[in-house]
């Protein structure tokens, strides 16, 4: 999904009806897959975004922002008569956020127009749970072509996530997304439960607790990079984009996770949603500085 986000900085997320005055404001492109595609482009990869927007002025702005970042948007369908996705987002001083999003229910869910034949020319694909029909088609085509097929297993209907996971080579959950499909409890226990029925690589991002994954029946973990958290909005999307890019470049899981952890941490240290996505030199410097300090 791609969207346009209006982001308001506030002292705290309100827990009752009230009026508050924002201390900062930013307008940024949004949407899980779109954010990940921008992250890939900023990190030096060739990024193609496939999805749907309306044929309205908002859709024109969304695609213009992606193109400005170097993302190929030739695989985007503009649906006549539909309103493009948007969101209003509150980001508190502790970095947490409250998202109010709108997705036009009339956006066509049919994936038959997707240029699946092009997937054989890519090194990897990344899909999420927001457009299940499109993600199923892309993941299936990638597996058939022998390509890396990553699923961003964020919060969504459990049956949808399970179906898409079966089509992916790598399933990377958020902690809430994992809990929905494997039950509440310790992430390691939930991950082991889910991995028992999946032949590929499964993992879960844990924010300040790093990244946990299972490979060949063994649990492994890499730590997070410590940063002052300013804004967590789009951090998971940046992580998934960086992780997928690293896999496409031939990195092993551990190195891909370290690279993604650094990219996600840098995003968290910057306000403005995906506008805070780092460049490759940013990530390289952070990884080198932490390595040098050990």
Summarize the structure.
With 294 residues, the chain is an alpha/beta fold.
Structure description:
35% of the residues lie in helices and 25% in strands. The protein has 294 residues and is an alpha/beta fold. The strands form 3 sheets. Strands 7-8-9-10-11-12 form a 6-stranded mixed β-sheet, with helices on both faces. Strands 2-1-5-6 form a 4-stranded mixed β-sheet. The chain has a two-stranded parallel sheet with strand order 3-4. Strand 11 and strand 12 form a beta hairpin. Helix 8 (253-268) packs across helix 9 (280-292). The N and C termini lie far apart (40 Å). 45% of the residues are buried.
List the helices and strands and how they pair.
Elements (H helix, E strand, L loop, with lengths): L2 E8 L13 E7 L1 H11 L5 E7 L2 H12 L3 E8 L6 E7 L4 E6 L21 E5 L3 H13 L3 E6 L4 H8 L4 E5 H8 L4 H9 L5 E5 L5 E5 L2 E5 L12 H14 L4 H16 L11 H13 L2
Helix pairs in contact: 1-7, 3-4, 5-6, 7-8, 8-9
The helix count comes to 9
Described by strand count, sense and barrel closure, the largest sheet is: 6 strands, mixed
Model regions low in confidence, pLDDT < 50 over at least 5 residues:
none
Strand order of the largest sheet: 7-8-9-10-11-12
Order of helices and strands: EEHEHEEEEHEHEHHEEEHHH
Count the beta strands. Answer: 12
What structural class do helix, strand and pairing data support?
alpha/beta
Distance N to C terminus = 40 Å
Averaging pLDDT over every residue, what do you get?
Answer: 96
Q: How large is the radius of gyration? A: 18 Å
Helix content: 25-40%
Strand content: 25-35%
User: How would you describe the shape?
Assistant: globular
């Amino acid at each position: 999904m791609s969207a346009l986000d209006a982001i308001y900085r506030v002292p705290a997320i309100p827990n009752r009806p009230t009026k508050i005055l924002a201390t900062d404001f930013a307008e940024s492109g949004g949407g899980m897959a779109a954010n990940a595609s921008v992250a890939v482009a900023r990190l030096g990869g060739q990024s193609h975004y496939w999805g749907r927007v309306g044929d309205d002025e908002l859709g024109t702005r969304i695609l213009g922002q992606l193109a400005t970042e170097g993302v190929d948007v030739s695989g985007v369908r503009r649906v006549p008569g539909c309103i493009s996705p948007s969101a209003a987002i509150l980001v508190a001083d502790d970095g947490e956020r409250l998202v109010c999003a709108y997705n036009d229910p009339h956006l066509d869910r049919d994936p038959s127009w997707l240029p699946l034949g092009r997937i054989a020319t890519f090194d990897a694909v990344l899909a999420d749970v927001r457009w299940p029909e499109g993600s199923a088609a892309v993941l299936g085509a990638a597996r058939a072509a022998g390509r890396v097929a990553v699923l961003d297993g964020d919060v969504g209907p459990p049956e949808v996530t399970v179906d898409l996971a079966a089509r992916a080579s790598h399933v990377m959950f958020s902690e809430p997304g994992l809990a929905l499909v494997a039950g509440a409890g310790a992430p390691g226990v939930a991950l082991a439960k889910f991995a028992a029925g999946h032949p590929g690589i499964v993992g879960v991002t844990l924010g300040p607790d790093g990244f946990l994954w299972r490979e060949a029946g063994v649990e492994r973990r890499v730590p997070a990079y410590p940063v002052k958290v300013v804004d967590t909005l789009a951090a998971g999307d940046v992580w998934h984009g960086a992780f997928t890019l690293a896999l496409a470049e031939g990195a092993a899981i551990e190195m891909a996770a370290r690279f993604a952890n650094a990219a996600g941490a840098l995003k968290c240290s910057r306000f403005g949603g995906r506008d805070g996505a780092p460049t490759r030199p940013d990530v390289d410097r952070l990884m080198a500085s932490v390595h040098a300090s050990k």
